[in-house]
Amino acid sequence: MTAKTSTRQGDTHISVLDPQDDSLVAEVPRHDAAGMRKAIDRADAARDRARRMPVHERMRVLYDASDYVDRHRAEFADTLAREGVKTINEARAEVARAVMTLRLSAEETRRIVGNTIAFDQRPGSENRFGYSRRIPVGLIGAITPFNDPLNLVAHKVGPAIAGGNTVIVKPHEATPLSALKLLEAFEAAGIENGIFQVVTGYGHDAGDALAVDERVRMISFTGGRSTGEKIMQRAGLKKFGMELGSNSPTIIMDDADLEQAIPAVVGGAIAAAGQNCLHVQRLLLHESIYETARDQFVAAMTRVRYGDKYSEDMDMGPLIDKAAAERVEQSVENAMRDGARLLTGGQRDGNYYAPTVLEAVPANHPMVKDEIFGPVTSLHAFASEDEAIEIANSVDYGLHAGVFTRDVDTAFRVADALECGGVMINDSSDYRLDAAPFGGVKGSGIGREGVGYVLNEMTEPKVYCFNIRFPKGWT
Q1: CA-based angle 95:101:105, to the nearest 5?
Q2: What distance in Å separates the CA atoms of residue 16 and residue 28, rounded to the nearest whole number?
Q3: Dihedral angle at the C-alpha atoms of 125, 129, 133, 138, nearest 10 degrees?
Q4: Locate the Aldehyde dehydrogenase domain: which residues (predicted)?
Q5: Which of 341, 335, 387 is nearest to 364 (CA)?
Q6: What is the DSSP letter of 141?
Q7: What is the pLDDT of residues 385-444, one digit of tens each?
Q8: pTM above 0.85?
Q9: E-state strands within 185-236
Q10: Most exposed among 38, 108, 137, 143, judged by the fewest C-beta atoms under 10 Å?
Q11: Does residue 5 have a pLDDT over 90?
C-alpha cells in the first residue's frame, strides 16, 4: 500500500485522492511526530476526565454519535466511497455496520462488571472480603487501514470510550476523511475535548510517535503483518491488539449445495476488490466436484461488474492506487510464469484489476502462502477431508475459513480441525458479525476485536480487598 500525497518539497498537507480516477477529494493536515506528541499531551491530560465519566454519560455519547451517523448516512457513504475502494452500495453497508458497532459499544458499557472474591478460601483470611472491578487502560492508540475506513475506526473508538479511556486514531493516509467525519459525530454528541482525537499523518512519523510513547498504554492496530511486527518491536511494554490479515481458505465438500456456495464465494472474493483480510484467496474444491464447481465459479467471476464505483449496478471498485494494482498484476504474472493457469481475469486497467481466478498454483508459491490483497482467488483440489484440512492449515495465517457441506458431522470435524479464529459453515470466509470475537491465530494477529471482547482488553481488573476488624465477641 502506498501513500497518496503531493510530492511538493516541504508539503504540510496530504492530498486525498479518489482511487477511481486520482482526482483530488480533499486535503488534510500532515502531522509529524511533534504534532502527534501534542495530541498525546491533550489525551493524557484528559485521562482522568474520561475515567470519571459515568456509565450513563458514556452510553449517551455513544448513542448520540451513532444516531448522528445514522441521520447522515448518505454523507458518510459518499465520503467513504470517494476516498476509498468500495462501491457506493458497499459504502452504505459499511455505514450501517458502523452505526451498529457504536450502538453495541453503548450497550456493552453497562456490562463492564467485576466479581466478588471469596478471600476466606485461604485459612487466616476469614476476616477478608473483596471484589474486582474493571478500570480503564488509559490512553489507547488506534492505527487503522484503508479498506474499512469507518467501521474499523468505530470498532476501536466505541469500546475505548465505553471503557473510560482516551483514544487517538491515526487513520491510513489514503483514507482519513471517514475517521474525521466520525470525530464530527462524537463532537456533535458532546464528547469532551481530548478524549477522542484523529491525527492525520504517515506511519513512519506520526504513527511511530503514537506507538512508542510510554503514555500510550495500548496499541490497537489493523493492517499488514510486517508493519504490526515493527510496531510491537518499537512500542515497548504495553497492551496490543493486532489484526494482521490472512489468506483465507474456503472449502467446498463433495456434498455441498453449489447454488448456495458459488454466489457466497464470489461475494467473498470480490468484496472491497479483494482488499479485505477475510477475502476468499484460496478456494478448496473436492476432486469429485472440482470441474463443475470450478466452471460455475469462473463463469460467475466473469460476470462480475467492475468499474464506476458510484454506479448502483457495480459489483466491484478499484484498488487503492496504481502501485497496489501493479503489485497484484505482478503477483499474478509471477504465478503464471511458475506454472499457474489463468482461468479468467488477469487484466489491469489503471487502478482496476479484473476479478481473477487461477488454478495449478504451486503449493509453496507466494500466491498461496502470502496475502494477495486483491481480487484474485486460486483453486485447489483435494481428495479427502484430511487433505483439505492439511491444505487449509499449511500457511502461517489463521483468521477465518469457510466450509460448505450438508453433513453436520463433517462441519463439526472440519471446523474443529481448522487453525483459525473463526469458521463460517455454509458461508465464505468473508463473513463477520460485529458483536462476535474477531481475530486470528499464527501470523493473523494477537487478541480479539468484536465490541464486548475488545472492551475487555481495553479495561483491566483491579482487586479491592478489605481486612475487616470485627468487635470482640462478634459472631
Answers
A1: 150
A2: 7
A3: -60
A4: 10-463
A5: 335
A6: E
A7: 999 999 999 999 999 999 999 999 999 999 999 999 999 999 999 999 999 999 999 999
A8: yes
A9: 196-198, 216-222
A10: 38
A11: no
Of 358, 352, 364, nearest to 282 by C-alpha is 358
| Single-letter code of the amino acid located at 190 | G
Tell me the C-alpha distance between 168 and 227, whole Å.
18
Task: Name the grid cell of 226.
Answer: 510486517
CA dist., res. 252 & res. 170, Å (int):
39
C-alpha grid cell for residue 320?
487503492
Residue 392's φ and ψ, nearest 5 degrees, are -60, -40
Contact 174, 1 (CB under 8 A): yes
Q: What cell does 178 get?
A: 471517514
Angle at 61 between CA 58 and CA 67, to 5 degrees: 140
The DSSP line for 295-343 is: HHHHHHHHT--BS-TTSTT-SB---SSHHHHHHHHHHHHHHHHTT-EEE
Question: Is 108 part of the annotated catalytic residue set?
Answer: no
**Contact indicator for 16, 26 with CB cutoff of 8 Å:** yes
Residue 119 · residue 129 · CB < 8 Å: yes
> Which domains occur in the chain, in start order?
13-245+440-462 (3.40.605.10), 249-425 (3.40.309.10)
Which of 90, 108, 173, 243 is the catalytic position?
243
User: Is residue 396 within 8 Å of 373, Cβ to Cβ?
Assistant: no
CA-CA distances (angstroms) from residue 60 to 20, 190, 260, 357?
A: 38, 9, 41, 48
- The phi and psi torsions of 422 (rounded to 5 degrees) equal -160, 140
Residue 25, classified by CB atoms within 10 Å of its CB into exposed (0-12), middle (13-18) or buried (19+), is middle
Is 419 catalytic? The answer is: no
Contact call for residues 265 and 257 (beta carbons, < 8 A) = no
